[in-house]
Every structure is written in C-alpha cells, then in structure tokens.
Amino acid sequence: MIYFDNAATSFPKPPEVQEAVLRALGEWGNPGRGSHKMAIKAAEGVYAAREALASFFDCPDPLRVVLTPGATHSINLAIKGLLRPGDHAVCSNLEHNAVYRPLERLAREGKITYDRFAAYDPERALSEEEICRNLAAKLRKNTRLVICTHASNICSCALPLEAMGRLLRARGIFLCVDGAQSAGRLPISLERMKIDALCLPGHKGLFGPAGCGALLLGENCLPMPLLEGGSGYRSFSPDMPEESPERYEAGTLPTPAIAGLMAGLNFVEKVGISEIEAHETALAERLKERLSSVPDVKIYAPERKGSILLFSSGRYPASAIGEELDRRGFCVRTGFHCAALAHKTLKTPETGAVRVSTGFFNTRREIDALADALDEIFQNGI
Q1: Between β-strands 308-313 and 297-299, what pairing exists: parallel, antiparallel or unpaired?
Q2: How far apart are CA 186 and CA 379, in angstroms?
Q3: Which residue, of 238, 271, 304, is where some domain finishes?
C-alpha cells in the first residue's frame, strides 16, 4: 500500500518512535503513583516530554503542558473549561467537528451563543486584513473565546494567527487554537501568536502514536477541569488540585504514547519543520499539476499550497474513487472528513470529496504512481 492519509494519522512512524514506545512498556511504571524506581523513571520521562513540548511551542512553563488523550479531548477541555453561562464564542468557517460540535451542543443547551467568521472564501482570496476584519465584526461585549483551526484538515488553508492573536489579546479575549494539522509542519509560538490554549494531537505531524495529545496553556488561562479523579496528588481533598497540570490529568497517563510522542518531537526537530513542510508541499503541488488538466476534476482551494489536496469528479462519487484507489494499492480518505463547516464553505458535492494528504516519508515516485492511477480511472472508467 502507498499511504496518502497523513492528515488522519502520519505513517509510517519513525523507528525511534516505535523503539521509545517499546522501551516505556518495558521500563516505565505509573508516574505519580509510587516512589519506586519504575514510577520515578516514568515521572522523569513524562516531565521531559512536557519540557520538550513547552520549548518547541514556546509555552512559558512546562507545568502548563497538559497531556491528554488527543486534540479532541484538549479542545473539549478548553471550550467547556473556559466558557461560562451567557458567554459568546466565535469560530471560523473551516472548523473540524471537534470544534463545531462542542460549541453547537453548548448553544443548543442555551448555555452560550456563538458565531462563525469567514476565514476562507472560495470565490476570492481573502487577505490577512480581511480575515481579521471578518473576525472583529463577529466579536461582542460578552465574547470570551475565539477558537479556530490553524490549518484546515481538508485544504491547504492556514489562518493568520499572529495578527488574530494581537487583535484578541488587546480586547482581553481568549484565543484557543486547533493545531491538529499544523503542529510539526508550521511554526507555532504561544508567545508570539498570543495563543492562550493550543490543542495538539501526537499522532499526526509530530509522528507519535495514537492515544496522546496535549493542551498547552498560556500564563493567564486556567480552564475548569473536564474530568475529576485520581491525580496522585493531595488525595485527601475532594476537589481536583488547583495547580496545572494535575488539575487536568485525572487517571493514569498513556505513558508509552507519551514516550513515543517525545521521540516523534525529537524527530521533527532533527529534520526541521521547514524541510518537512517543503517536502510535503512539493509532492502535493506535483499532484495538483497532474490533476489540473484532467477533465471533470475540481480541485478545491487550488491557490493554497500545503500538504493537503482535495478534489472531486463530475463523473464519479468520491467513495467510488476511493474504493478503486484502494484496490490499486493507494490509501486516501473520501467523504466529509469530520468537517461539515469546511465542506460547506468549499461547496463540495453531496457525495463529498477525495483528500490526498502527503507525508514526510512519501516520494515523488509514489505521487506519480497515484497520478497515473487517477489518469487511468478518469480515462477508462471504474
């Protein structure tokens, strides 16, 4: 199989990631749940991961790196922990369901209101200034939180976080960022971008295993906890600790996944974000060039450059194209990609679209093989 579904999870994982997971399984105990050597070794490894994440994303304090099961958990913790009854929130028109559904549920329950701003317009390119104006137009006196994706999961569109962060910081509004598609591919700095909460998965651009992500909190951002339970800290108290990260990490941490995440982060630092981005973008651009001349194929957000290419065909539904590619040995993703708002914004067909997401381990030969397969499919039929 040739794998082009890296926006869902990166594959393959670097050998050092696999080795780190196995090492943790064989050597680590439960951090914070004992004073014996294995528990201490695990605690040291977990803290080292916090330090690495804080350094990489310019977070002011490793203790504000909260380890979670993944980006969706982090997003829910931020949204439900920061918003209060009567608050107003704003998101973009490119959001994943991990953002859209929690906001929609809170709104339907009458707890909050929220609006969406135009971060992308399929009819014309929006400048950074226009995006910020669109955002500012949706802000109210009771707006407490703006939560948005950094980079879309269905097209290569990234938002101007630095300009947005300045705007929101001046108004005292929290900025929460979904970094699912950008972490490990695009530079992210909590300090420079004025981000109050950064939500990360470990298993995508950071090359870690599934089961571990992070929520990085700025200095003045302290959400209410989403879960309560044992933290290995102040066990006689009926309440969760006030301090981060114990306040948010109820239950046993996924230590093997944390070890793998740290190894993946080290891999990204060794290779370099700019090298990873350049390689993945060049491959996607190569495919875009090949597909642009194919009749009845529509490419979405063609003016944007990145690792994700979304297209549909006037002849075949996306699912049929995906199934035929699977038979030919290619892994892509079809449908709506858990991103209803983004698909509505891009105006994809009722059958959805085909997403090709390149990764660092893909090659130009693999891209050409995919393009050749698509040529055959559109010329000869399914």
Answers
A1: antiparallel
A2: 37
A3: 271
For the entire predicted model, the pTM comes to 0.95
Name the domain boundary from 271, 295, 326: 271
Q: Cα–Cα–Cα angle for 135, 226, 204, nearest 5°?
A: 65
Question: In the chain, what percentage of residues exceed pLDDT 90?
Answer: 90
Residues shown for the chain: 382
Whole-number pLDDT of residue 241: 78
Query: Does 189 share its domain with 106?
Result: yes
Number of other residues whose CB lies within 10 A of the CB of residue 379? 9
Residue 354 forms part of a structural domain: yes
Task: Give the Cα separation of 310 and 375 in Å (integer).
Answer: 16
Give 231's pLDDT tier (boundaries 50, 70, 90).
low
Mapped onto helix, strand or coil, the DSSP state of residue 195 is: coil
Mean pLDDT, all residues of the chain: 96
Average pLDDT score over residue span 99-126: 97
CB count, 10 Å around CB of 125? 11
pLDDT band at 185 (very low <50, low <70, confident <90, very high): very high
Terminal-residue alpha carbon distance, the chain = 19
Nearest to 72 by CA among 186, 201, 258: 201
